[in-house]
């Protein structure tokens, strides 16, 4: 809806929402003070509200206790919905069948004439017509088996009918839920989880564990899992154990450089060219201690237990002295071996 | 294995039916909540918005640290709250150095995020800071007038979006009949620049004018603030189309006792209750009437009777 004002500039008025929009106003220069800005905004606002009120108060109104009541037109601005449009309920299986066959719905009365007592009784509920417990005698038919209780049979039949009806109702609701038209007060809940192998919940396996398992399975193959077909994205198996490097069979003329390096390393370790780097102090100490203890033990066994205390103390003292003289000591060991 | 669950209570059933999707929708409920850090100003803004929308708003006062509306995973909490409280608009306030006094106004479609607008609040003036005549104060829950001023709302994409969202937030319930005496508030939004909007809430004064339409006067009453648009996210096209769909043909409500005939046109049936002939008060009954009047009536009756006799005899 548009209304013309004196300034010949139409506003966009939506009476249903009590909304007015002036798309032609702009601030050529921002007013310096806040108060002026506020004042101008209020002025423009007043004009717009006046425009809405013009159309609003001219609508036909009815008198009410509190004041004039006006019927608003539907709003013209389109706003998005908050929930989806309700879908119509799909016809149930019985309704489809009835439509196909042309069966009409009949209105049923609340009370039915009961022949037995000669009164009007309700169709269902307390004290109803054709109740199972009101039947005194059931005549036996030729088709009846001898050991069957007819009263219990009637009750069983009724139970079965009720169960069947419940199952059909559930199927109809499931069908409605599939297309999203479940009635608002009904909820379908899953009562039991699907059946799995064991009762225990499945253990959560970590990525590393899975990798280990795959590796273990791979080693059981003849080639150690090297040529197994891998899934896309699967990384090659991590090698377990020590990394051994073997020299190439053919390399250069004479002794190859790599072999030379290898032998040099070994020799250096043996002859200890840079002995201060080579020595492993902790290892030397433990070896010495062990040797000493052995010697001490032998002597103890020969002499008796008297000198055990002094023997225990001695190696430690000598240890402190020995740290200075480690060089020749270690070389001796090297040659001995 | 499925089980059908229906409510045992009438109250619960009625609540569920209220939350079911309807053909024509009345107003949306608003959820107001905050993030890990809020400033004093932001607290004021949130509580005032709640106060203005008292009837249809829910306010959460605890801080929620896992809500990040603009990130893909940070909306799950919001959607859960929206589902539980049945709110389709939310106002989320947070304060950080990068985005001070931040408000994210968002809408939901089917309890999933539909669109978002992020605005910063500046120059906030609360309701208490205004002085006005208390008698004019607008009542809670009255339907407001909404006015948008400025070409920015038409040209700038972000402001257009903000206009739509503000309309949804401020409009209240959608009603068919409205009482003209109860109109007492108005919101005015002016686009000051291409990303700033000045929002103010005013009380209405209806002054006498010559015609039926009264003259409107706006008095600034409530909160007023500058909104600086920071970010916004529009809905994707498919979702927008689905949300904008309206029911094409609303089933016309059948008017009772009216039927139409090809020959005679519209026919209406009127049911008249049985006449209780014996209980109608007779005009000449003199019991409840004062003595003079009683005697006067008796006289009249006699005269009439005598007249009748005369006529009969004649």
From TrEMBL, chain A:
Keywords, in A-Z order: Nucleus, Ribosome biogenesis
Q: Does the keyword Zinc apply?
A: no
Q: Name one GO cellular component term.
A: preribosome, large subunit precursor
Q: Which Pfam families match?
A: RRS1 (PF04939)
Region annotation (Disordered) ranges: 63-93, 138-169, 193-337
Biological processes, Gene Ontology terms? endonucleolytic cleavage in ITS1 to separate SSU-rRNA from 5.8S rRNA and LSU-rRNA from tricistronic rRNA transcript (SSU-rRNA, 5.8S rRNA, LSU-rRNA); ribosomal large subunit biogenesis
Main location (coarse class): nucleus
- Basic residues composition-biased segments: 313-325
Q: Where is the composition biased (Basic and acidic residues)?
A: 151-169, 226-237
List compositional bias (Low complexity) regions by residue number: 214-225, 328-337
The subcellular localization recorded is: Nucleus
User: Belongs to which family?
Assistant: Belongs to the RRS1 family.
Q: What does this protein do?
A: Involved in ribosomal large subunit assembly.
- This one is known as Ribosome biogenesis regulatory protein
Species whose genome carries this gene: Hibiscus trionum (Flower of an hour)
UniProtKB/TrEMBL annotation, chain B:
| A Pfam family of this chain | Brix
Q: Which UniProt keywords apply?
A: Nucleus
State the GO CC annotations.
Answer: nucleolus
| InterPro entries per record | Brix (IPR007109), Rpf2 (IPR039770)
According to the entry, every stretch annotated as the Brix domain falls at 28-238
Keyword Cytoplasm carried by entry: no
Bias (Basic and acidic residues) ranges: 292-314
Kindly list the places in or outside the cell where this protein is found, as annotated in its UniProt entry. Nucleus, Nucleolus
TM ranges: none
Q: Where is this region: Disordered?
A: 282-314
- Give the coiled coil ranges: none
Record GO biological process: maturation of LSU-rRNA from tricistronic rRNA transcript (SSU-rRNA, 5.8S rRNA, LSU-rRNA); ribosomal large subunit assembly
Q: Name one GO molecular function term.
A: rRNA binding
Superkingdom of the source?
Eukaryota
Sequence similarity: Belongs to the RPF2 family.
What PANTHER family would the database entry show? BRIX DOMAIN CONTAINING PROTEIN, RIBOSOME PRODUCTION FACTOR 2 HOMOLOG
Can you say what this protein is called? Answer: Ribosome production factor 2 homolog
Question: What organism is the protein native to?
Answer: Hibiscus trionum (Flower of an hour)
